[in-house]
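To close the section, here is one more complete example, presented without commentary so you can practise reading it yourself. The ligand is NAP.
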Amino acid sequence: MTISLAGKTAVVTGATRGIGRAIARALAEAGATVVICGRSQSDTERAVRELISDNRKLFGISADVTDNVAVARLFDYAEKQAGAVDILVNNAGVGIFRPVAQLTVEEWKSVIDTNLTGVFYCCREAIPRMMRRGGGSIFNISSLAGKNPFAAGAAYNASKFGLNGFSEAMMMDHRYDGIRVTYVMPGSVDTEFGGRGGATSWRIAPQDIAQIILDILAMPERTLISRVEVRPSKPAK
Ligand SMILES: NC(=O)c1ccc[n+]([C@@H]2O[C@H](COP(=O)([O-])OP(=O)(O)OC[C@H]3O[C@@H](n4cnc5c(N)ncnc54)[C@H](OP(=O)(O)O)[C@@H]3O)[C@@H](O)[C@H]2O)c1
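Output:
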């Protein structure tokens, strides 16, 4: 499926690398004006420089999604630079993997505040803006960890289980406002997530997740893909 997003504005959180960067690139290549964020201004500016080619319109500002004031600033900035938001991709996320007895309060808060509360802050800013325009699309990048618990995953599992419930309830809240909410649950994607390094050929490529976003955006407005599970075809045994 191919789609033109000319005239559309997208915000992608956590797009300095990994899945977010691939999604930002794909949306820009499809013609959208894209606004990205990461926690530091220098990393965000570097990502914008790396992503811009041709006449693509891409802007970036630092915004920590755990900070509701910074999130409000991100959406004000996006509206000023690119116009009202049509597409929001809640991608920013962190993974800290430790048994509960070893998890610090700060680590717990970091995972829940980024992966769950940060999504709420962004949706709270985006939805009224989308409603004024008659609709929009929201993608929450969850994980198969949102349905499959594993040892040392308590904080991460809790954040993604919560994100799935949040996404489904929000879908029901706003479907009649023309807002389509999708949560995507990838298995292992080839990024540096959680501090792991090195490319691994069996993992899902970040651009494959971006392709899923484009394919869903290409669906007719009458149809809402609310949940996607995606996994490597042949994971390492
Ligand atoms: N990789 C996988 O196997 C996998 C599988 C399933 C789901 N996911 C999910 O996919 C999403 C992206 O993961 P990834 O693999 O691309 O990870 P990544 O390579 O570590 O990238 C994470 C991105 O999130 C940003 N970020 C982190 N905390 C942030 C905050 N508080 N505010 C704003 N930006 C923040 C980071 O930017 P800065 O560091 O520059 O702030 C970075 O751009 C996450 O939600 C993750 O849970 C990943």
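Once you have examined the tokens, check your reading against these statements. Helices lie at 18-29, 41-51, 68-82, 105-133, 154-174, 206-217. Residues 13-20, 37-40, 43, 64-66, 91-95, 114, 118, 141, 143, 186, 188-189, 191-193 surround NAP (CB under 6 Å).
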